[in-house]
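Extended Data, record Imidazolonepropionase
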Amino acid sequence: MIKGLVTAVCAGILLTACHNKDNNKVLLKHVTLIDGNGGMPVPMTDILIQGDTIAAIGAGLEEGDATVLDLGGKTIMPALISAHVHVGTLKDTTTKPENYTRTNILAQLHKYEDYGIGNILVMGTDRPMLFESGLRDSSEKGLMPGARLHTAGYGFGAVDGAPPLSFAMDKVFRPATPEQVVPEMDSVAKLSPTVVKMWVDDFNGKYAQKLSPDIYRKIIEEAHKRKLRVASHLYYLSDAKQLVADGLDIIGHSIRDKVVDDTLLAAMKEKGVVYIPTLSLDEFAYIYARKPEWINDPFFKKSLEPGVYEMITSQAYQDKLKNAPDYPVKVAAFEMALRNLEKISSAGILVALGTDSGAMPLRAQGFSEHLELELMVQAGLTPLQAITVATRNAAKVLKIDQQYGTLEKGKVADFIILGSNPEVNIKNTRTIEAVYKAGKEVSKGPLAKN
């Protein structure tokens, strides 16, 4: 009789577990909620997840058939969204076309996810395999593991100029005349990209010419005819002013040569131009001349490709950076980028997270996004403002803000559970205990894989 009772009880427990699984309801109790909208964290509230969606938020929620997790005050924030990255061409200490394989792309999407990044926008360096295999479509729809991949397809650069061919940029269109832009834009438009990417820069005099105004105006014109927005890599204030005047939608890097002026700020605000500062790129450009405070942090080291840590910590590499003629220029560019971000943010212009991670070995995928948050705070944003830049604002840039970017009833349950509150210290975004994608736990963070 006792044996039968035990069996019945066990069967009841199993039935309850299966019932919970079938209903796929999870009730997170006693969380500190940062919802991504910029408001103060909400302490000791509850979140009910049903399937892949947030069903309710509020204190004292009850749901009899849900799996209940009491988080004891731990912080939940939306998964990060990075609106400027590169994937696939980076492997070990190289950036080459042959690295661009399905296996490598999926591994990097996994890495972004481990670091709490739910969606990424690859800015103009994707290759035909991504589209011909259906990998982009499956990833963007959340059917593949890892961060969801959004794309700018094949970008536009200058003949014998930027972007460098040595960075696996051989699929970038390089029109010599405005007339060439039309069929090339047709090819890009067929891919249904999130944005169109172009490069307008001479890389501090490395190249004799930049993409000319008559060609980049044609790129903007043809993209807009097809209802596509245009993002540009740039560096100089003069280029930013002309590009904004000519209809550019997204500035994809910091302005780094001069302080932005009121004329540009007014034009950007009037036209709704988005600013993606990629501060981490500019710090990475010079910081390894010394050993930054995070150089031995496991959270950083785990993000690196094999061989990169040994390269950047070698004395020879550090000396090469420190003694390079352009070292002071790189330091000054970073400091100008910080200053300009504060001015642009204070002017009420939409700022979104992006890092250029994955474009080269120094720009670590995953860690760069968390470093970017720290640098935005260093520039003058509050931690909560920086988080909004990395969640709600970036979702707006990708035009996925109806589903992602904030934690609200009816939105997809993409979020990170943190051990400590980043409103107190922005570095606490690195205390990842769990990553959820569409209502399911998909990672316990990068360090859990040690």
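Summary. DSSP finds 15 helices and 17 strands in the chain.
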